[in-house]
Amino acid sequence: MTGFWLRASLAAALFATGAPALAADAAGRTAVLQRLLDCRKVEGEAARLACYDTAAGALDQAEAKGDVVVVDREQARSMRKQSFGFTLPSLAIFDRGEKPEDINRVTLQVTDARRDRNGKWVITVEGGQVWRQIDVGEFTVDPRPGMTASVRKASLGSFLMSIGGKAGVRVHRDE
User: Fold this and answer.
1) Residue 137 domain flag
2) Is 15 helix (H, G, I), strand (E, B) or coil?
C-alpha cells in the first residue's frame, strides 16, 4: 500500500463509527482525544494528573494501533499535493486552522515513462503518481526519467502535462 493511501486510510479511520475510541463528537474530535481534553475540568491536582495519565495512555495506544492518526500541517499540505489529480469525496479533515491552498499545478520529476499498447504515454513521477495520456497529442520531446513534468488543471476538470516546459498533452491520473 503506498504511503499516501495508507495515510488516507488511517485518516479516514478517524471518522469510523464502529469503535468507541473513534466516535467523533460534534466538533469532529475522536472520543479518545476528547477524554484527554476533558481532564482539564477535573478538580484537584492529583485527580487531574491521574485523569491525564489515563487519557494520554489511551491516546498513545490508539495512535500506536493506528486507530487515531496525528497529522501536522505540513503532512496535511503534502497529502493535498499527493492527491492532486484525484477526485476525492473530501479532505476537509486536513483543513482545520487554515484556509487550504488551492493547488492548480504540481511539478515533479519523471521516474518512468512508457507507451501503452495504444501508443499513449503512461508517466510515473516522484511520489508514485501515475498519469496516462488521454488525447492524441504528442509531447515535443519524449519523456524520460529525470525530466521535469508539470501537471496543471485545465478546463472541465481535465489536466495538462508538459515535459521540460514544452507543449503538453491531456492526461488523467491513474494512481
Assistant:
1) yes
2) coil
